[in-house]
Design a protein that fits this description.
alpha/beta; TIM Barrel; 2 domains; two-stranded antiparallel ribbon; globular
Amino acid sequence: MKLYHPLKIGSLHLPGNLFLAPVAGYTDRVFRSLCVDYGADFTYTELASSEALVRQGEKTFALVKRAQNEARYGIQLFGSSPDVMYRAAGLLVPLSPDVVDINCGCPVPKVTKTGAGSALMQNPANLGKVVEAVVRSSRENLGGVPVTVKIRSGWDSSSINYRECANAAFRAGAAMVCLHPRTRAQGYGGKSDWRQIADLAAALDIPVAGSGDLFTPEDAERMLRETGCGAVMFARGVLGNPFIFNMTRDLLEKGSRETPSYAARFDAAFRQLEMLCADLGEKAACREMRKVFCAYAKALGGMPGAAKLRNALVHAETAADFHAIIESGV
């Protein structure tokens, strides 16, 4: 099979296998919209709290709204209570997601201390109950849209149990598992162990997506080729670099790819700023875009003056400030 190919996740048919992963603080609907324009085949929202959804948190619902150009998207939920996760999934009806994803991988203490995220991997039986509850809610409320699960290798090096957790999710009705092969204890340090992705892809009868250390199109090509995974899910590698989807597709289909210019990169950043201003208002949008513009600058690599540029960007207050800083090349 070609490395770039359509993928079936349960009842969902996707045209390709290059996905945007959920990234807290970054994959809002504006950025997802940009990624769709630059070739993402499927996109996931930021992780959303099931408890907050059940409490009718307006901010949480706003977090998971579909972008106008998102023909297909998934909403990621986190939580540890099967009952609350069941109810939260049922509340997604007005949003019509194409997939509901369950976060079993987030290593952040704010999430894990509630028993959610990667803490679920310490209790595979409960992980299975959570998946079963969301699958049941999908069937009863959402027309049976597929449920997917994102996991890590395990909690720490002494508890590598991704196989056990993936099998629990599969038995509970998950239609795809994404593996980020680092432990919770590793966080984002060290190297991800892609051998685990290959192992899981060979073991499961549902698609396995791979994540972890995907910073270039060449990384994605190597992961697909070496692991046999069904899809790649870009996370940190897409920050400031939504072009990675089209670049990767070009590499996989044509054998080569071009790198966007400095001007093209910041044209995309300003498009993102404009759309976010329309969504949030200029003041709030500019606060959010400070880290985003820094990500675009960082994606340029060792550009002369990059550190000075980022230092100026974190103090921008208005859209005009961002334009002045980029145009002057501070």
